Amino acid sequence: MSDDTARPYDPGEPRARGGHGVVLGASIAGLFAARVLSDTFDRVTLVDRDQLPVTDENRRGVPQGRHAHAILPAGTRGLQEMFPGLLEEFEAAGTPVVREPTEMHFAPGGHLLCQEGRYADPTPTYQPTRPQLEGQVRARVAKLPGVEVIDRCEAAGLLSTPDGSRVTGVRVVGRDGGAERELTADLVVDATGRGGRTTRWLADLGYEPPREDRVAVDIKYVSRSLRLAPGALGRRKVVIVGAEPGRPTGATLLQHDQDHWMLTLIGYSGHHPPTDPADFLEFAKPIVPPDVFEALCAAEPLDDPVAHRYPASVRRRYERLEKFPDGLLVFGDAICSFNPVYGQGMSVAALQAAVLRECLARGRERLPYRFFRAAGRRIEVAWQMAVGSDLALPQVEGDRPLPVRLINAYFTRLLTAAERDPVLTQEFVKVSSLLSSPLILLNPVTVGRVALGNLSGRPARPGR
Ligand SMILES: Cc1cc2nc3c(=O)[nH]c(=O)nc-3n(C[C@H](O)[C@H](O)[C@H](O)COP(=O)(O)OP(=O)(O)OC[C@H]3O[C@@H](n4cnc5c(N)ncnc54)[C@H](O)[C@@H]3O)c2cc1C
Which InterPro entries would you find in this protein's record (predicted)? Predict the structure, then answer.
């Protein structure tokens, strides 16, 4: 991967135009896919089984919307390109924006990263709630010419040519009890989330399903919205404390409005956060810095703690299939669902959107083959970073071959040095934001800084 992981997509004039694209699932990935299809298809139909809210509300099909969601800078760039002006509107409406290291307390793996200096990359982090982000993106997609959004409508199966070599549409059932009907399409995009309907549908058409890579993380999220006193956390707008080998728990505290914050506590297997309000707060005590805990104790709860279990990261290797029907793509979490603690899902969906746009610009010939291969390369980097970090925790089961152990040992040293080194901090943040290849962390200058930072003899600063 080059150092321009999230470069703007400008593939030039597409080779094929017209036709009907159907996107299944109108969550973030489906919306991004519909946005891209609308550039080259005359008509795009977006289908979701939920009733889609008019305002920025949580909904049943996206239970994760009740929990802390951050979009990484790579995703921010994707939003800027696909929906110009959207992020500026959020900021004008009061959404907090992180631009300076002092505004972020980021402690991955037990190391509080340096808060000095300025970010070299100017891409800021915007902090709308997940329903706000999805709601505003949906409103924009719905206004695109040729786009129709059909909600309360469930995709039930695929239509295909008699020999199954091409998908020609989808069977859908209205959730109001109507009869099944057929939507014919030149391209169907499955963005129905980690449940991944396509694996079953492929079997119906006589194809092998993709191999699945799984990492059982057994994570539980418990989250609650809070009103914090203005200025309670000084300049900080986000506090992220990751798990570490001796403490497989973590916390994210995100500011969404002047006084509205979301606190999410997480724990790996056997260390799950409780939902009882008093115990929930107590769980945060050994994780967050003392002044943050004080602010949490003084905060006014705005709702009850709500839980979400996440058993395993799942990656479906569509790029390795020898046979796959034309006229069908899989997109977003349906290809790869990442351990959410690394906040990658929406940003990887944005990277897939860029890949799809580039693929469509070169025509529709062998589209699935080209898309899965190119998307697989983008996914690979994010997947390896997430899995590598998970395997640094003894609580996560899985093989740890020598390269994983060596890279994790190096990362521990890199994070130790980054506690006092703003340059290393910035390089790490660029990589974990999916803006740069992890290879930049292995260049000789960086390795030298890491070595020096670990020689200094100064004790590491605690992640808290
Ligand atoms: C607890 C948690 C926290 C997360 N935090 C972050 C974060 O901080 N940052 C980040 O970038 N990502 C995060 N993610 C991941 C992020 O939510 C997803 O990557 C993102 O929503 C894109 O997923 P998706 O659109 O592919 O699928 P989903 O969001 O799962 O949406 C699937 C959609 O398909 C619809 N659907 C399902 N079946 C059918 C059907 N048969 N017919 C019609 N419609 C159907 C559903 O109603 C839904 O709208 C988190 C995930 C979890 C679980």
Answer: FAD-dep_OxRdtase_2_FAD-bd, FAD/NAD-bd_sf
Q: Which atom of ligand 1 is nearest to the CA of 72?
A: 11
**Three-class secondary structure of residue 227 per DSSP:** strand
What tokens were used for 329? 């793509």
pLDDT of residue 15: 64
CA nearest 270: which of 393, 379, 361? 393
Decide: 207 and 322 in contact? Cβ < 8 Å.
Answer: no
Q: Is 308 in the pocket of ligand 1 (CB under 6 A)?
A: yes
- Strands 180-184 and 167-174 come out as antiparallel
Question: Pairing relation of β-strands 147-150 and 125-126?
Answer: unpaired
Q: Which tokens is 78 given?
A: 């994707």
Quick one: average pLDDT of 168-193?
94
Residue 258 CA to ligand 1 centre (angstroms): 27
Share of the chain above pLDDT 70, in %: 95
Q: Which atom of ligand 1 is nearest to the CA of 172?
A: 42
Question: Across the chain, how many H-helices and E-strands are there?
Answer: 12, 18
Are 38 and 147 within 8 A, CB to CB? Answer: yes
- Residue-wise pLDDT tens digits, 340-360: 999 999 999 999 999 999 999
DSSP code of residue 164? S
The whole-angstrom separation of Cα 341 and Cα 67 is 11
Domain-wise residue ranges, the chain: 20-80+132-211+315-389
CATH class in words for 20-80+132-211+315-389: alpha beta
Report d(CA 311, CA 340) in Å as an integer: 11
Mutational test site, ligand 1, from 69, 125, 189, max ligand atoms within 8 Å of CB = 69
Q: Is 313 helix (H, G, I), strand (E, B) or coil?
A: strand
Whether ligand 1 lies within 6 angstroms of the CB of 340 is answered as yes
**Does 12 score more than 90 pLDDT?**
no
Rounded to an integer, what distance in angstroms lies between the CA atom of residue 165 and that of residue 206? 10
DSSP string across 24-62 = E--SHHHHHHHHHHTTT-SEEEEE-SSPPPSSS---TT-
Q: Tokens representing 459?
A: 């004790």
Whose alpha carbon is nearest atom 47 of ligand 1? 61
Distances (CA, A) of 132 to 89, 193, 249: 12, 19, 27
